[in-house]
Amino acid sequence: MRAHPLATDAVLAFGALVCMVLGSFADPHGPHGPTFGTRNPDPFSLLLMLLGAAVLVFRRRRPRAVLAVTCGLSLLELTTGEPRAPVAMCTVIALYTVAACTDRPTTWRIGLLTMAGLTGVAMLAGPLPWYAQENIGIFAWTGMAAAAGDAVRSRRAFIDAIRERAERAERTRDEEARRRVAEERLRIARDLHDVVAHHIALVNVQAGVAAHVMDKRPDQAKEALAHVRDASRSALNELRATVGLLRQSGDPEAPTEPAPGLAVLDGLVDTFRHAGLPVEVIVQLGPEPGPLPAAVDLAAYRVVQEALTNVRKHAGPGARAEVSVVRVGPSVEVTVLDDGGTEASDAEPGGGHGLLGMRERTGALGGSCFAGPRYGGGYRVHAILPV
């Protein structure tokens, strides 16, 4: 019925036409009560009933226009019909439709106007006496139609409000749950910071005491180291417990392999060589003692990885790349060059988030990153990472 409203209204109009035609053959004033088949409607009344039923097919598209037309047909029947046919049933259905589609004040105004107009014309201009029960019946039927339409409209509005409230509650429930979880995690993180900071400060103080008295009072140094051991154990236990609270059941397992760095740079370059990109690599970390810090080592690896990925994606066919990682004093300079290939590529370099990620990664370590086209063709990425 919702998918085909016009067909539904056509069936309703046909049913109303059948009821009106059958009712026009009934005589409510028989000698022994209402009788059927004792009177026949005139052809003009049958025409009015047919027109009224045909107009009802469009009652949902133009409810007020349909009500006006049916009211006009009913007034013609009330003033000319003898015997009177129930053409007013078309007006009853149309008035119900208007009341179900509009607001309550409009229903009151249109309903009272229709009730008063039809009843007044039936009493004053009709062939029956003004006190005939058929005239009172017109008033009752139109009043019930307006009341029923208003009740249906109110019920539909109530159901729609309940459905909308339920959908809104369903949407906000998950959001509220996520917000509460985030707030709880933030609170736990603050507690974790306070606990770990306290224990680390205690470890620092006790380690300083142990270093100060190690030579002169080894017993006191041993006691300080015992305090360091206890404080570190307590910090680890509380850290483990708090991180366990922060974990969720769907969180992925922590990776067991070490973070990539320059030590596995050859493996990274080999993957690009196998993909058809010739790459030359120069790594000169100099005679400075000690390995690079883990964060710098990882950042250098990621810069090379992202730069070679951009060369593979954006450079033309036959492109060649050069990678150099050189330690210069207190910093490491990472440079990736390419010649652009034999033909220009359609894609613009740096169209995604790779360059932004490199700049953010180097900026987080206090370094800088420059990326741009080279003179004569190709592209250049140069990153400076403080050691």
Task: Provide a descriptive summary of the structure in words.
By secondary structure, the protein is an alpha+beta fold. Helices cover about 60% and strands about 10% of the residues. It contains 10 helices and 7 strands. The longest helix has about 80 residues, at about 135-215.
SS class: alpha+beta
**Uncertain ranges:** 345-351
Supply the number of helical segments: 10
Number of strands: 7
Topology, pairings included?
Layout: H1 5-24, E1 26-27, E2 35-36, H2 43-56, H3 63-80, H4 88-101, H5 104-125, H6 133-213, H7 218-246, H8 265-274, E3 279-284, H9 294-314, E4 321-328, E5 331-338, H10 354-364, E6 368-373, E7 379-386
Parallel strand pairs: 3-4
Antiparallel strand pairs: 1-2, 4-5, 5-7, 6-7
